[in-house]
Amino acid sequence: MSITRYPLHNIKKRHLLAGGLASLMLLMTGCAGNTGGSTVAEDCEPIAEVETMTEGKLTALVVEHPPFVTTEGGEISGVEGTLLKEIAAGLCLELDYQVTSFAGAIEGLQNNRADLSSSNWTVNDERRELFEVSNPMYQSTMGVVTKGEGWHTVEELKDKKIGTPQGYLWNEQLYDLFGDNVVEYQSDVAVIDDVKAGRIDVGIVNNHANSWRLTQPQYSELTLETMEPSEQLPHTQKEALAVVLVEKGNVALKDGVNTVLADYIESGQMQEQFEEYGLDPQWIADPTETED
Predict the structure, then answer these.
(1) How far is CA 118 from CA 133, 216, 224, in A?
(2) pLDDT greater than 90 at residue 53
(3) Which residues does 77 contact at the CB level (< 8 Å), separation at least 6?
(4) Which key words are in the record (predicted)?
(5) CA dist., res. 50 & res. 116, Å (int)
(6) CA dist., res. 289 & res. 172, Å (int)
(7) Of 3-17, 73-87, 191-205, where does mean pLDDT reach its minimum?
(8) 193 and 264 in contact (C-beta within 8 Å)?
(9) Residue ranges with strand state E in the chain
(10) Checking CA distances to 210, which of 9, 52, 150, 166 falls within 20 to 30 Å?
(11) CB neighbours of 71 closer than 8 A, spacing ≥ 6?
């Protein structure tokens, strides 16, 4: 499959185009919703009374982004895929997950085509304005993939050709710092594959997701380091916390998500998921920590 790569300075225009195309695809196909006959017991008692886009269903926009979300085999799983199933079960709703792109998920949730989205989303002030934001799930850090060089500082990356996936909050900062040396890709996998092939020098990706991916034999020559904090790269100066994004105004659903999330962490389920995928449980959030 060919990979589209382009300079970050064109990203705003391309994001608008991608968002428009994603909207069209959502309208035409519904993003291939995945739900069968109802599995909700008639005597199910929900933990909270919530309103959703479709009565009896919880519609989620997700991005194929293992180990957080994967739909291989026709069933959603992964750290956040499992959480979504727990949320639906706790609310006595049928989970209808729809697979799309990062841009499509944001645009679709903004335009009332889903109730929520959970796909390794980190939070900033703009997203707090656009959506209801759950309590933190885990810390999401910036990882640096190289072909064995082990680079992890801003100084080491100067004059290097850098790839990063679409949709990350650090992208504009990378462009401001490294200019036209930065190109954007459609996925983490595409970035890593081009580092492996030598088409780029460095990949800037999610650390947790790709610590799991780089255990695969085909990536044995690559190394992954955590980006060293730098004032030149503000994203590294504070915790990047992953959250569930909920349709704006649906506070009851956000509260329901938070109730299930707290139990998911306290019960040890999230730790089990982290350990299954070789992730470090130390990054899991304190269940008493709130977004507000």
Answers:
(1) 11, 25, 24
(2) yes
(3) 70, 71
(4) Signal
(5) 13
(6) 29
(7) 3-17
(8) no
(9) 6-7, 57-63, 94-100, 116-122, 132-133, 138-139, 142-146, 162-165, 182-185, 202-206, 223-226, 241-246
(10) 9
(11) 34, 62, 64, 77, 81, 97, 99
Rounded (5°) CA angle 126-130-131: 115
The residue written with tokens 């428009």 in the block is 20
For the chain, what is the mean pLDDT? 86
Q: pLDDT tens digits, residue range 212-258?
A: 788 889 999 999 999 999 999 988 887 788 999 999 999 999 999 99
DSSP 3-state assignment of 224? strand
Q: How many other β-carbons are positioned within 10 Å of the β-carbon of residue 170?
A: 18
* Burial of residue 98, with CB atoms counted within 10 A of its CB: 0-12 exposed, 13-18 middle, 19 or more buried: buried
Q: Give the number of other Cβ atoms within 10 Å of residue 180's Cβ.
A: 10
The DSSP output letter for 10 is G
For tokens 């649906």, name the residue.
Answer: 250
3-state secondary structure (DSSP) of residue 199: coil
The mean per-residue pLDDT over the stretch 192-199 comes to: 97
Question: CA angle 241-4-19, nearest 5°?
Answer: 60
Does pLDDT of 45 surpass 90? yes
HEC assignment per residue over 82-137: HHHHHHHHHCCCEEEEEEECHHHHHHHHHCCCCCEEEEEEECCHHHHHHCEECCCC
Residue 130: other Cβ atoms inside 10 A: 14
> Structure tokens of 50?
């919530």
